[in-house]
Amino acid sequence: MIRARIIAPSGLLVAGLFAAACHKHARVQSSGDVAQVIKDTTVVVAPVIDKSVIAFFKDTASASAFNAEGEIFKPQIPGQRVSLHATVRKERALWQARKPSDYRFLLRVGCFCPGTRGWLLMEVRSGKLVRAWDTSGRSVSLTDWNTVSIDGLYDNLQRGLDNNGEVQIAFDPRWHFPKYFRTSGLQMPDSWSITEARALRPM
User: Fold this and answer.
1) Beta strands of the chain (E only): which ranges?
2) Tell me: the pLDDT tens digits for 146-186?
3) 31-75: per-residue pLDDT in tens?
4) All residues at 6 or more sequence positions from 47 whose CB lies less than 8 Å from its CB, including other chains
5) Best CA proximity match to 186, nearest among 82, 110, 74
6) Helix %, strand %, coil % for the chain, to 5?
7) Distance between terminal CA atoms of the chain?
8) Alpha carbon distance 129, 120 (integer Å)
9) Could you tell me if 165 and 186 are in contact, meaning their C-beta atoms sit under 8 angstroms apart?
10) Which of 65, 81, 95, 172 could form a disulfide linkage to 179, CB 3.0–4.6 angstroms apart?
């Protein structure tokens, strides 16, 4: 067998590699004993859709993006800051005392940028968020900023309590999770955020 050596400028070699990568079904063939050396390794992953979860979103049919409710606190006023912290601590303790290990709930979060997101269904098992779906039943990534458990909601809330000019918050009377909280920045009125949670169901 005679082997030919081809020397090409590096730029041409790189261009050739990109061209081969763009053609998913490109094949190199020769006569006789030379086998196919480039194969199509592209894998198409179908979206995971669970239509059985769509019924959970019926509780959101008439929900406005700004369902303002709850008590308003101004954390920069010392007395109101103390009251806000005491309220959150009390409600979180009640949540910890009765929270189910496995549950689902609906969550919607939004802020000035990128705006209000749609409702998502969260599934928590053994206290950890394991799945989330959008209103079409399509699974969504758990790494996004708008996917979190109830304990995660409390963590987010408590981290930023003192950094806001105003906090408006309401708690679920049965399970004691924050069902609505709105925050607005100190110096930038447009730096608002709104989080809504509802329809918690033990599993």
Assistant:
1) 71-73, 103-111, 115-116, 120-125, 128-133, 164-171, 178-185, 193-202
2) 899 999 999 989 988 888 889 999 999 999 999 999 988 77
3) 444 344 444 444 444 557 888 888 888 866 555 545 567 899 999
4) 138, 139
5) 74
6) 30, 25, 45
7) 69
8) 13
9) yes
10) 172
d(C-alpha 34, C-alpha 135), whole Å:
52
Residue found under tokens 């969504």: 140
* Cα dist from 113 to 88, 119, 191, whole Å: 26, 17, 8
- Tokens, residue 76: 């920069």
**How far apart (Å, rounded) are the C-alpha atoms in residues 158 and 169?**
12
CB neighbourhood size of 135 (10 A): 15
Q: Which residue is associated with the tokens 């763009």? A: 22
d(CA 125, CA 107): 16
The dihedral formed by the CA atoms of 98, 100, 101 and 104, expressed in degrees to the nearest 10: -140
- What is the C-alpha separation between 67 and 165, in angstroms, rounded? 20
Q: Which CATH class is domain 51-202?
A: mainly beta
**Is residue 38 within 8 Å of residue 20, measured between CB atoms?**
yes
For residue 193, the SS3 value is strand
Rg (Cα) of the chain, in Å, rounded?
27
| Tokens 């920045």 found at | 185
